[in-house]
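User: For my dataset I need records formatted as: sequence, then structure tokens, nothing else. Please produce one.
Assistant:
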Amino acid sequence: MHTLSRRHLLGLAGALLAARPLAAETLPKVHVIKDANCPCCEDWIGHIRDAGFPVSFENMDAGALADLKASLGLQPTQVSCHTAQVEGYVIEGHVPADDIKRLLAERLDAIGLAVPGMPYGSPGMGPETEREAFDVLLIAKDGTASTFSSYPAAG
């Protein structure tokens, strides 16, 4: 009968841990506040989940949601149908997951990101192959906006 020493057992355990696939990254939870009757908000939540973010959400009536957006520092020209929060940042509208990841990696001193309106072909708003051009805005703490990234029209 062959017995394994503690050293062999620890070595085997280490090899098993090294061989198992690890998550490429651990992403923070995104909390979404949305209108209950908005299907594109659900589609955007799916996009964020598919990118690896854990997501929670709550429904809010339109008036309260507008008040929330204003209280978070968003200007009327910067708003969309849903508002999300992640690690102290506001994510307004159909912002692509890769832009959220970039914001979190760069840790910019800002309110957050916004895709004003509901541009067709942005995440959650129809096929990317038919996308209209749109910009993702970086919202500064004073409420001003600058272009964070640009997406050209498809085709």
